[in-house]
Amino acid sequence: MAEYVLAIDQGTTSSRAVLFDHSGTIAASGQLEHEQIFPQAGWVEHDPAEIWSNVREVIAQALSAAHATAADVVAVGITNQRETTVVWNKTTGEPVYNAIVWQDTRTQPIVDRLATQGGTERFKDRVGLPLATYFAGTKIVWILENVDGARAAAEAGELLFGTTDTWLLWNLTGGTNGGVHATDVTNASRTLFMDLETCQWDDQILEAFDVPRAMLPQIRSSSEVFGTVESIEALRGVPVSGILGDQQAATFGQAAFEAGESKNTYGTGNFLIFNTGEKIVRSHNGLLTTLGYRLGDGPPHYALEGSIAVTGSLVQWLRDNLGLISHSSDIETLAESVPDNGGVYIVPAFSGLFAPYWRPDARGVIVGLTRFVTKAHIARAALESTAFQTAEVIDAVNADAGVPLAELKVDGGMVVDDTLMQFQADILGVPVVRPVVAETTALGAAYAAGLAVGFWKNLGELSANWHEDKRWLPQIDDAERARRMRLWKKAVTRTFDWVDDDVS
Predict the structure, then answer these.
(1) Which residue has the higher pLDDT, 234 or 307?
(2) What is the pLDDT of residues 273-289, one digit of tens each?
(3) What is the pLDDT of residue 487?
């Protein structure tokens, strides 16, 4: 009888279910996109009910494709878009508002209010994060302050909060009929509320935000049995035994388990994680300090993270908003039709700039336009912007860690683009390496779940599953690399100070 681990990958644009066998190979999968809701400029929402419905459907797709039943599945793991915030009524199971997505910037006034005492780094020593719209904490506050009845219901103990992992876990394990309300350390570390050293909620910070502690899920490790599936007949009784935020899951799937190892995921945004082991490293260069993973009762492992808001979503914007391409995959062909960017640079600060700048006042720019420029140059500049943003984050990692990155492991949807990967190697000056299994986010969730139930025995067994698929080597010299980075940094400065009292 075949044995699988099922990974649920609940991402920003879609939900996937992937069955992995013991070798870490994909046996079957299902995927559905969900609606991106933009009520006004800077607001990004998802429908939590649609997400839960889609997750049930993609699980059915994957099981059907593999002709598998609950008897074939040893464990379920969850990975998720991390900071996206759901608040729901624990009695009815109904969300009180749409999920507020990690990209959403509506909470800037709340950030500003909280920063009046101590600035944006007010809590950074304890939680590893600056005050920013990115994180879940301010999104909870917005819901409590703007949804009729939410504050009173929360204070009466009627409302629950969760990032999408918690929303799915609660529903999978029974929902209103005994659903488990929990999260793991990696997701908890993205709220602004978790103390990095204790891995527990910080009551002083909750008081400053005026968020009732009763709303918050229990914090548990990334690899342990949380509960069993009760609400999906085809998986009834299967343990849910792994949860990792998507970027930490991708790191785990890349087998970057030890201090000094790292990965970069190319998705809706880009996220570089550098493992610092059991040591908490405080960034002085615009990075976040976050939880990498925790296995059962073992010690927490920490990481530095460089978060970039807009990379793959820039390609979607060129497709959907400008009609420059018909399909996302068309961008590589268009970009390859010209030898360079024609002097064009795109800085996609649609939601401000994340690492290493943290400038909420920034907005996107396209600079260097002349009559010579064609849509092919704009396409190439869009791809190059992903590589330039990654290079700045890696410079910050090198400065904080004190040890230059020797090579970059990559994963995510954009790594199939040879043009982008070659430019990434060129602008970094180090090799870029893609694994055979590029679905490392789902794989990491599967690994965490499988370890908890003994499907895999140890991390060494997981490392043995990792195999290199392709490697790109730098092809430009240091002088040309420095010239291109200088022009990029000049373009970045043009995004600053755009948002003021009259512009949002």
Answers:
(1) 234
(2) 989 899 999 888 888 99
(3) 96
| Per-residue tokens: 243 | 């949860």
**Residue 504 confidence class, pLDDT cut points 50, 70, 90:** low
**pLDDT tens digits along 84-96:** 999 999 999 999 9
Nearest to 414 by CA among 426, 424, 399, 428: 424
Instruction: Mention every residue, 6+ apart, whose C-beta is less than 8 A from residue 442.
Output: 7, 9, 16, 18, 20, 29, 79, 249, 253
Asked if residues 448 and 243 have their Cβ atoms less than 8 Å apart, the reply is: yes
List, in sequence order, the alpha helices (H) in 6-69. Answer: 48-66
Sequence length of the chain is 504
Dihedral, 333, 338, 343, 344 alpha carbons, nearest 10: -20
Cβ–Cβ contacts within 10 Å for residue 311, how many?
Answer: 26
Tokens 């910050």 belong to which residue?
396
Report how far residue 169's alpha carbon sits from residue 31's, in angstroms, rounded to the nearest whole number: 19
Tokens of 300: 């927490």
For the residues of 77-115, what is the DSSP string, one character each?
A: EEEE-SS-EEEEETTT--BSSPEEPTT--TTHHHHHHHT
Average pLDDT over residues 191-217: 96
In this structure, the number of other CB atoms found within 10 A of the CB of residue 359 comes to 16
HSE at residue 302, side-chain half, CA atoms within 13 A, is 20
> Which amino acid is present at 173?
T
Neighbours of 477 (CB within 10 A): 11
8 Å CB contact between 205 and 192: yes
Q: How far apart are CA 428 and CA 424, in angstroms?
A: 6
| pLDDT tens column, 32-49 | 999 999 999 889 999 999
State the first-to-last Cα distance of the chain, in angstroms, to the nearest integer.
58
Cα–Cα distance, 463 to 469 (Å, whole number): 15
Return d(Cα 141, Cα 389) in angstroms, integer.
Answer: 30
The per-residue DSSP string of 219-283 comes to: EE-SEEEEEE--S-GGGTT-EEEEEEEHHHHHHHHTT--STT-EEEEESSSEEEEEEEETS----
The residue with tokens 């995927």 is 31
pLDDT at site 98: 97
* pLDDT at 501 (0 to 100): 65
Percent of the chain with pLDDT over 90: 79
Residue 149, phi then psi, degrees to nearest 5: 80, -5
At 134, which amino acid appears?
A: Y
Nearest to 20 by CA among 58, 74, 70: 74
The token pair that represents 40 in the structure block? 């006004």
Q: How far apart are CA 500 and CA 504, in angstroms?
A: 7
pLDDT exceeds cutoff 70 at 338: yes
| Block residue for tokens 């000049």 | 490
Q: What is the pLDDT of residue 1?
A: 55
